[in-house]
From TrEMBL:
Signal peptide: none annotated. Pfam families: Glyoxalase. InterPro entries: Glyas_Fos-R_dOase_dom, PhnB-like. Residues 3-139 form the Glyoxalase/fosfomycin resistance/dioxygenase domain. This is VOC family protein. It comes from the Bacteria. It comes from Candidimonas humi.
Length: 146
């Protein structure tokens, strides 16, 4: 079994994926936009926007994306656009290969975000820090003690 976090960016998914591409070397494996979805069978001919007029403004938004960061897969979407993303009660941990990689990831994620614990040595790790990125996702960066 595998677990894959699914992040909903409420209309900012393209922006977030570009940010994670630069910050974390994230690779988009698959991406589907709302316009790519087939029209419901009872809608007759035409695009999915014909079947649902409220969808017309969202056709270019991301319905689903599969993103690879290192050996991990995340899913992402523009999803529910009501009220903005609500990333609370969880964080995503990155086990960096060393100090330089940890610093690079941490600083990139902190750009436009909020550091909640500066990256530095702790009693349980060579280096550890926490940062909420510009989208509100909490990242925990760790370099395990060797």
């Amino acid at each position: 079994m595998q677990l894959h976090p699914y992040l909903f960016f409420n209309g900012r998914c393209d922006e977030a994926l570009a940010f994670y591409g630069k910050a974390l070397d994230a690779e988009i494996v698959d991406l589907m936009r709302y316009k790519d979805a087939p029209a419901p069978a009872d809608a007759g001919q035409g695009s999915s926007s014909a079947a649902c007029p409220s969808m017309a403004g969202r056709l270019e938004k991301v319905m689903h994306a599969t993103v690879r960061i290192g050996d991990t897969v995340l899913f992402a979407s523009d999803g529910n656009e009501d009220g903005g993303p609500q990333f609370r009660g969880f964080g995503i941990t990155i086990e960096a290969a060393g100090q330089a990689e940890a610093r690079r990831f941490f600083d990139a994620l902190a750009d436009g975000g909020q550091v909640t614990m500066p990256l530095g040595p702790t009693f349980f790790a060579e280096s550890f820090g926490m940062v909420a990125d510009r989208y509100g996702v909490l990242w925990l960066i760790i370099v395990h003690a060797r």
